[in-house]
Structure formats: structure tokens, C-alpha cells
Design goal:
heterotrimer; A alpha+beta; B alpha/beta; C alpha+beta; A: alpha+beta; Ubiquitin-like (UB roll); Alpha-Beta Plaits; five-stranded mixed β-sheet; three-stranded antiparallel β-sheet; 6 helices; B: Glutaredoxin; Rossmann fold
């Protein structure tokens, strides 16, 4: 594949044609935050955290869905971008009830880690605190809507990797919610294979395994790539 | 049917019409029908039957005539004489009209309820898209053909290459009438060159902006005009399948388009081997189910494919990979309404109207606090003042003009100081508004601008699809802030936070809905900042709309 | 939903709609056939289903999903995305208040507030006796007649809070007294102020 050269934060770098900006940026060790992106899943372009500045266009571009082009001049760390990232995470924190101290994922949560990294010590927006249920009907997993950020990783893993499409989103706007089958208790699902991929890829405490509730949480979102390589390329990296 | 037969059909229908001593055209658009137009039409028919005049007088349904608030409207066309439009028709008035016109010397126009033909409402209008509206019977193909429907298509199929059709549209300078104003010809050329097994043309009739009903009117009044434009586009870009996506709230428009498709297919004007050429083009209707975001092209495609109407990131653009992965051309219904006249009269003729960068005419739905509300078509570049005060007849009740809202939830409010702004894409954008699809709502001094901003932000919050974080969470927070302002509980910092959120949504949202959602807030902040300050600092609503006592329930 | 809650993780009520001789399912079948069983026709099929059943019952959603071979959550997600679909039974009478810009400027919010107060309900709800559903819409394109109200499909222009309440009361009263039901609803409401 042809090589292209571009500038990333004032540094001249090279990349392969067909890569996304996010791939290129991460290849070069720049840690651009994302929540909805996950290696192995299709891009959703929903969290908007990976927005970057590209010279020549006044619009910000989402790195996860922008193909790399020869001669691009990219900035990932301007004041404007940092400000927006902070605001986006604050909006997510205000949207549901994220109380870290009582969350199983405390210390392992991607949202929490990101908030810390961005220096968010308080949320400037009105907390919406919607009264959402916790679905503990499944024998092995728990779904807590209060900690969900609607990144859509779980439903993509369920659809694209497991092939079950047990999960989807109902409603729209701020009332959107992850559902199981006909919006029914997870335990009563007749399409769920119980594979647990959704739990493994969930960045927050919205989906956890029951055995984790009291103890330590070990999620392995990177296992998706291993499965996919095994299926498609017949190679197993571990 | 071939070209000669098409001409023959037109000739026959024209002769049939000429044979009548007098023709009554009753508006059968939604506004006139809801004002009682159906009853009026029946009364006219009955009066004619009673007097035994069926052979010499005809009563037909026709599309929109313009001044919708004065409906039901009836246009009278006496043989060889001048025509007249009558407003606020009732069954009683209908009887009187028949008496006056149907007699032997039918040239005396009763003055009661007659809209003067030199009324300024009509004076400054130029009807290109709407040339057939209010004149043709939308449910009769013959009537549309008599006014020239499918002539441009017949001409193009015989005399022009697809490339030439694209070039003619480029020359016309036509820009997308859905709001963004992308040059139509450029889009077509890109699409023509796109590689694909098959290609698809979509007419976007998901007219969700509140206060805008141009597309519905065109589909209801002159459906063949839209279909002919789509067929010309399909020929120009090499497509063989079309969809008309009709907003769910518009059942009548969908029905008329559906009937028009069937009639055109029966006559070989759509379907296989159109006009006995080698060009095939099938059109299907798809109904929306109530989601504003489906006006966005990627959401619209998701909806046509039966999915949740959520936008997906571009690229790939629809012209590269659209419906079912095929190259897809999406234009607004009104854009397609311009095509047949452009092909018929030439791009240069069309470019003769409007301004240098905004050519041609635009249909606006004029509503709100003006004396004459309704549907108007004006050359681009006309000033807002001319629209509001000449065509619209000014503000009723001795009130004063405060602002005109264009572009719906994606647009902004233009204050009195800018009444002399020419209505074109660039000027409106400079003022912080947009052309939008063409809704133009006039507000008088009794409208509160922060309240209007809140209204639009609530709209965007309700209509946000919920996919991307800034739009989903940001619209809610902005509604809360605006609510606090209009409740009298806001602090000056709230305004800063509001502005910051405006920028966030504008720059980081996934689709046009979120990106433009801040516009009503930004434009009112820019032009009516003192009203925000009055609410926040003085606890006072200058327009007297908001209850700032803090007793408000929500 | 209740039956599903208690169900073991098995396919729900497979026999239910097999045995269901309800002719309304045949209407759905016809639409599905017309669209050659294409999954892309989901919205058209749901529209037809809602027209025949009045709302989208869960067994109806399940039926549609199985016939189109779509997963349940997909169908449920689409049905809850669009405003036109209702998963709850609708009232005997429908009252829609337009909250489009022109109507809003003409104070249609006051009409809505008056109706909500008078009938003790919020927009989007149906009265407990199942008589009246109150909903809002964002522009019907009848802006020349603002503010606009739609009662059982009939568009009423230039309304006020008082006139709206009176019209809805009249409509409800009509069904209360069976003797007046014989009178065609549309003509009667024409004459009411």
C-alpha cells in the first residue's frame, strides 16, 4: 500500500494509504482519547472525542472516520480541542448518574480515567439524574443504565462479532436507552447467547459480570481483535 | 407514448379547456382544504348542475395559488377574458359566483371577496417552480401535460446527452434548495462520474422545518413537475431508480405523488423505455414516520432502508456510497422543481433571475405576523423589506416588525435593522441565519427572543437522534439554561456557558442537526442581546411573554 | 411484556400468532409480500401494522420481526425511534396541538396548557378512560391558519385556549350520549362554535 506523508503536531510522519487518522495518530504514540471507538468494531463516530484540527478546513474532523491524505497538517492538542474534550466528558457525566465511589468499575473505568486525565474535578452542567433501572435479571451479567454513555460498543460487539443482535438502542435523543430484545429483562432474552462480549467491551460500569460486583473487575476489550483474527486470518495472537 | 403523442395529448387537453365558457379552479392544497375548500368545490359543482351548465362550465381541483390564509381560494378563468381569484370562499359565495359568470355575458367580475389582480402580493413574485401550481389539476396528467409537463424530458431524451443536461444545470447556477445551497450542477456532475452498478435518485421531501411547506405544496400542486425533474436528473447521472421521501405528516402529498407516478407510468412517461427511448426510470414513494433528523441525507437513507434514522459520518458521501452501497443523488423536492424549466428555457435564462451567486427564484412560506401569509416565489436577492411589507402587506394590528426567522431550527432571526438585506445564501449567512428550506416567519414586538430561542432549542432536543454526545447532551443543557433565563433564575455566567455550548455543538456534532442547532441562540444573542440582559440582570421580559417571578411550573 | 418477563429464555409465544386467526395479521402479510419480504420495508410494514391494530402491540412487533427475519431489538429500536409509532393504545379521540413556529408565535403553547389543565393530562398521554389522547406536532404546514388544532383528523384553524377546550369537550360529550352518536361526527363538529 502506498505511503503518504503528513504532519502531526508539527512533526513530519508517514502513514499507509487507507488508514484512518486515528490509526495514524495512535501509531505515532499520540494518545488521542476515544470512547466509542474499539479496535475490531465498525466506527460509530459518536463520542466526538477524537476531533482534530486539520489545516485548510475550518471544520474539526473526527479522526476515527477520516481517511488519511497526503500532506495533511494535523493538530491534536490545541486549547480549543482540549476545551471541547473536557466539555464532552462533562456532558456525559451530567447525563446519567456516574457515582464512582459505589461503582464496581471504580479504578478501571475508561470514562473515569478520561475525566482524571482531562483534569475534570467538577461538572459544570446540571446533573440530569434520570431515574433509570438496573437490570440484574441475567444469571451472569448486570446492566446498569445509570452508568451507560451510549457509546454503542456493546451492541456492535453483539451484532458484528457475536452475530446475535440481542442489543440495540430504543428511543432517541437524551431518552435513548440500550435494550435487550423487546426492551425486556436481560434474563428473559431468547436471543442472548450469554457470550459476555458486550460486558467485556463496555468502557464503564454499565455492563459488568455478576462475579465482579464485589471483587475486582478485569475487562478485556482487546480480545475482540483476537477472535476476529482467528476467524478471518486463522492466526491467534496471545 | 412518444413525443408526438405527448404533444397531441397537450393539444387535445388545451382544446377541451378552450371549449368551456368558464372554468373554476378550486385550490385543493392542504391549507385550503382545511379551511373548507372541499365544500366550496362541491357547492360550485352543484350550482352548475342545478343550472344545467355542465357542458359550458367546468369545476376542477387545482394546486396552491399563494395566499393560504385567505382560503378557500377559487380561480375563475372565463374564456378569453382576464382571470380573477376569490378569497374566503363559502358555499353561498360559490353560488353567487356561478350566477355571475355562467350567464351569457360572463365577463362581469363580482367585486365581493375578489383579490385584486394588481395586489402587491402577486406583483413582485416570479413563478418558475410554481408556474403550474394553482393552474393544473394535480390528479390529471392531461392537465399537467397541457401546461408543458414532460416536454423538457422529451426534448432532453432526444436532443441532449446526459453531460449536456448537467452542463445546462451548471449554467443555470441553481443551488440546492434544501438549505445548504450546494451547486446542483456540480453535484450532478460528480454523481454522473461516480462508478456504480446502478445509481439512485432521491427527492428529499422530508420538510421538517416548522413553518416551511414549500415541498409539500409542490408535491400536492404539481407532482409531475417534481417527477419530471427527477427523471431529468436520472437521465443526466445515469440512474434507473428513484425515491420520493415524503414527510409522514403529508399524507395528501404522498397520495398525489403516488397517483402521478402511476399515471405517468401508464403513459410511458416513467418506467421502462420512457417516451420510447432507451431510458428507464422507476420511482417509488417512501413515507417518513415522524423524525426531523431524516432530512439529513445520511439519516434519510437509513430511513429509506427501514432503519433508525440516525446519521452516519461522511465520507463516504451518498454520491460515492449511498442507498444499498450504490451512488445516490439526493436533492430537495424544490430543487427538482426547477429542473424542467431550466432544460426548457436554458440555463442562461434561469441565471437571469437572482443575484450573481444566488441565481433564480426561491419559494418561501411566509407566515407569522404579516397581513398576507402563504406561499410566495421571488427572485433571490429581493430584500426582506419587500417580502414583509410589499408582498406580505406589513404587520397587522398597528404592531411593529421585530424579526424574521428563516431557516427554522437551523436558522436565525433577522432584526429590523437588516430589513434591507437581500435574500440570498451569503447575505443570510453573514447575518447568522441561513436560507434554509424557505420558511419565513415574521414576528412582531410581542415575541420574546430568548423564548423563541428556547422554542427552537427544545425542538432540536426532541429531534436529536441521540447518537453523538454533544447533540444529545448539549441540547438538553442548553434548554435548561434557556429555561432558567426565561424563568428569571439565570446568572450572568449562565450566558457564558450557553455561548460555550453553542460553539461545542457547532464544531463537534456529527450531523447538520447538531451543528446548526445553536444558530437560533447565536443569532438572537447577536441581534437581541439586550433582551437576554433584561431577563438576566433586570428580571424583566421586554416583550411581556415570560413569567419571571419564578412561579413557572416547569 | 409481562408474559415475556416470566418466560424462560425461549422463543416467545411461537404458537400465539400461529393460532391467531386475527385477520389483521393478514393485512401485515399482504404488505410484507408486496415488499417481497425485504427487511428494508420495516417502516412500511410497521405503518401498516399500526393502521390495522391502532398501535404496535408487542406480539405484533414480534410477528413483524419474525416475518422479516429481523432481531427483536432492531424492530423495537425502529418502532421507538419514529414519532408516528405508538406502543401504547391510543384514545378513542385524538387531539393534536401544533407547536410549529407560526403556531407558537400565535401562542399555541397556551392552548396546550389549557387542554392539559382541563383534562388533567400531559401531552403524549391518554386519559385513563381511554377517551382522549393529547399529542403535539411540529408544524402541519397550515401556518396561514395558525394556531392550529387537529381533532380526529380534522384541522381547525385560528383557535384559542377557550375555543380549543370547547371543541374537545364537545367531541367527548358526543360519545358520552349514545343518542347523538348517530349524528355524523364531522358535520356536527362543523357547526359547533
Amino acid at each position: 500500500m502506498a505511503a503518504v506523508t503528513l504532519t502531526l503536531n508539527n512533526e513530519l510522519i508517514s502513514a499507509r494509504e487507507g488508514q484512518t487518522l486515528l490509526e495514524v495518530i495512535r501509531d505515532h504514540g499520540v494518545d488521542l482519547p476515544t470512547l466509542c471507538h474499539l479496535d475490531g468494531l465498525s466506527e460509530r463516530g459518536a463520542c466526538r472525542l477524537c476531533m482534530v484540527e486539520v489545516e485548510g478546513t475550518s471544520r474539526l474532523l473526527a479522526a476515527c472516520v477520516t481517511p488519511v491524505q497526503e500532506g495533511m497538517n494535523i493538530r491534536t492538542d490545541s486549547d480549543r480541542l482540549l476545551r471541547y474534550r473536557k466539555m464532552l466528558v462533562e456532558l456525559l457525566l451530567a447525563e446519567r448518574s456516574h457515582v464512582c465511589s459505589v461503582c464496581t468499575m471504580n479504578g478501571k473505568c475508561e470514562l473515569q480515567a478520561l475525566a482524571v486525565r482531562l483534569g475534570i474535578d467538577h461538572v459544570r452542567y446540571e446533573a440530569l439524574h434520570p431515574a433509570l433501572p438496573v437490570d440484574a435479571s441475567h444469571g451472569r451479567f448486570v446492566l446498569d443504565h445509570n452508568r451507560c454513555i451510549l457509546c454503542g460498543r456493546c451492541l456492535r460487539a453483539c451484532d458484528e462479532v457475536e452475530g446475535a443482535h440481542t442489543l440495540d438502542v430504543m428511543g432517541r435523543g437524551v431518552r435513548s436507552r440500550i435494550i435487550v430484545d423487546f426492551n425486556q429483562p436481560w434474563g428473559s432474552s431468547f436471543t442472548c447467547t450469554g457470550c459476555g462480549k458486550c460486558v467485556q467491551v463496555c468502557p464503564t460500569g454499565a455492563m459488568v459480570a455478576r462475579e465482579n460486583i464485589a471483587g475486582r473487575v478485569e475487562k478485556r476489550p482487546d480480545f475482540l481483535l483476537r477472535i476476529l483474527d482467528g476467524r478471518q486470518k486463522r492466526v491467534w495472537r496471545w | 407514448m412518444n413525443r408526438v403523442e405527448l404533444q397531441a395529448m397537450a393539444e387535445t387537453e388545451r382544446n377541451r379547456q378552450k371549449a368551456f365558457q368558464c372554468r373554476f379552479l378550486c385550490c385543493v392544497g392542504t391549507p385550503c382544504l382545511s379551511a373548507g375548500g372541499g365544500v366550496v368545490q362541491e357547492a360550485l359543482k352543484q350550482a352548475i348542475a342545478v343550472q344545467g351548465l355542465d357542458a359550458t362550465v367546468e369545476v376542477v381541483g387545482a394546486g396552491c395559488m399563494g395566499p393560504c390564509s385567505r382560503g378557500p381560494l377559487v380561480r375563475v378563468l372565463p374564456a378569453g377574458g382576464e382571470e380573477a381569484i376569490y378569497e374566503h370562499m363559502t358555499p353561498e359565495k360559490a353560488g353567487a359566483l356561478v350566477e355571475a359568470f355562467a350567464g351569457p355575458g360572463c365577463s362581469s367580475f363580482p367585486e365581493e371577496s375578489r383579490i385584486s389582480s394588481d395586489s402587491p402580493f402577486f406583483g413582485k413574485q416570479v413563478k418558475i417552480v410554481l408556474s403550474g401550481s394553482g393552474r393544473v389539476d394535480p390528479d390529471r396528467l392531461e392537465s399537467c401535460v397541457a401546461e408543458g409537463a414532460y416536454t423538457a424530458l422529451a426534448h432532453a431524451l432526444r436532443e441532449m446527452t446526459p453531460e449536456e443536461v448537467c452542463q445546462e444545470v451548471v449554467r443555470s447556477g441553481l443551488r440546492g434548495r434544501g438549505g445548504a445551497g450546494y451547486p446542483t450542477g456540480v453535484k450532478w456532475n460528480l454523481m454522473r462520474k461516480a462508478q456504480g452498478e446502478r445509481k439512485i435518485v432521491v427527492a428529499n421531501g422530508d420538510e421538517g422545518d416548522p413553518g416551511a411547506y414549500m415541498d409539500r405544496t409542490l408535491m400536492e400542486s404539481d407532482p409531475h413537475r417534481v417527477l419530471e425533474g427527477m427523471a431529468l436528473a436520472a437521465y443526466a447521472v445515469g440512474a434507473d431508480q428513484g425515491y420520493v421521501y415524503v414527510r409522514g405528516e403529508y399524507p395528501l402529498a404522498a397520495q398525489r405523488i403516488q397517483r402521478a407516478i402511476q399515471a405517468a407510468e401508464r403513459q410511458g412517461l416513467l418506467g421502462n423505455r420512457i417516451l420510447e427511448s432507451r431510458f428507464n426510470f422507476r420511482v417509488d414513494v417512501r413515507m417518513g414516520a415522524g423524525a426531523f433528523v431524516c432530512g439529513e441525507e445520511t439519516a434519510l437513507m437509513a430511513s429509506i432502508m427501514g432503519r433508525r434514522g440516525q446519521p452516519v459520518p461522511r465520507p463516504p458521501y451518498p454520491a460515492q456510497r449511498g442507498l444499498w452501497g450504490l451512488p445516490t443523488l439526493i436533492n430537495n423536492v424544490e430543487t427538482f422543481g426547477n429542473i424542467a424549466p431550466i432544460i426548457q428555457h436554458g440555463g442562461e435564462w434561469y441565471a437571469g433571475y437572482g443575484t450573481e451567486k444566488s441565481r433564480g427564484t426561491k419559494v418561501f412560506a411566509l407566515a407569522g405576523k404579516v397581513s398576507w401569509t402563504g406561499l410566495i416565489e421571488v427572485p433571490l436577492g429581493i430584500t426582506l423589506r419587500e417580502i414583509v411589507f410589499d408582498i406580505g402587506g406589513g404587520i397587522p394590528g398597528g404592531r411593529s416588525f421585530k424579526a424574521a426567522q428563516t431557516g427554522g431550527p437551523s436558522g436565525g432571526c433577522i432584526p429590523a435593522a437588516h430589513l434591507d438585506t437581500p435574500m440570498d445564501y451569503e447575505s443570510l449567512q453573514e447575518l447568522g441565519s441561513i436560507m434554509g428550506s424557505g420558511g419565513l416567519i415574521v414576528m412582531d414586538d410581542r415575541s420574546c427572543m430568548p423564548d423563541v430561542a428556547k422554542f427552537f432549542m427544545e425542538f432540536c432536543m426532541d429531534e436529536s437522534c441521540g447518537k453523538c454526545a454533544p447533540c444529545r447532551g448539549g441540547t438538553v443543557q442548553m434548554v435548561r439554561l434557556l429555561q432558567r433565563i426565561t424563568d428569571g433564575g439565570a446568572a450572568p455566567e449562565d450566558l457564558e456557558q450557553l455561548k460555550e455550548l453553542c460553539l461545542l455543538l457547532k464544531e463537534t456534532s456529527l450531523c447538520g442537526l447538531g451543528q446548526t442547532a445553536p444558530n437560533p441562540v447565536l443569532s438572537t444573542l447577536r441581534h437581541f442581546r439586550e433582551e437576554y440582559d433584561a431577563h438576566i440582570r433586570e428580571g424583566r421580559c421586554p416583550a411581556g411573554v415570560c413569567d419571571l417571578s419564578g412561579n413557572s411550573m416547569e | 411484556m409481562d408474559s415475556l418477563d416470566s418466560a424462560s429464555p425461549q422463543s416467545p409465544r411461537t404458537s400465539d400468532f400461529r393460532d391467531n386467526a386475527d385477520a389483521r395479521f393478514k393485512v401485515i402479510d399482504r404488505v410484507i409480500k408486496r415488499h417481497q419480504f425485504q427487511q428494508d420495508a420495516l417502516i412500511e410494514v410497521l405503518t401498516a401494522a399500526q393502521e390495522s391494530f391502532g398501535y404496535l402491540r408487542e406480539d405484533v412487533l414480534a410477528y413483524v420481526a419474525r416475518r422479516l427475519q429481523l432481531p427483536p431489538s432492531w424492530v423495537y429500536g425502529v418502532a421507538t425511534f419514529y414519532h408516528f409509532f405508538s406502543l401504547q393504545p391510543q384514545g378513542h379521540h385524538q387531539c393534536i396541538v401544533c407547536l410549529g413556529t407560526a403556531c407558537y408565535v400565535a401562542r399555541s403553547a397556551e392552548i396546550l396548557a389549557a387542554l392539559e389543565k382541563r383534562f388533567g393530562m400531559k401531552a403524549g398521554q391518554t386519559t385513563s378512560d381511554g377517551e382522549l389522547s393529547l399529542t403535539t406536532t411540529r408544524c402541519l404546514g397550515s401556518c396561514g391558519l395558525a394556531p392550529v388544532l387537529v381533532l380526529d383528523g380534522e384541522i381547525l384553524g385560528r383557535q384559542s385556549a377557550e375555543s380549543a377546550v370547547t371543541r374537545v369537550e364537545a367531541l367527548l360529550h358526543e360519545t358520552e350520549s349514545p343518542s347523538s352518536q348517530a349524528v355524523s361526527r364531522s358535520t356536527e363538529s362543523e357547526e359547533k362554535p
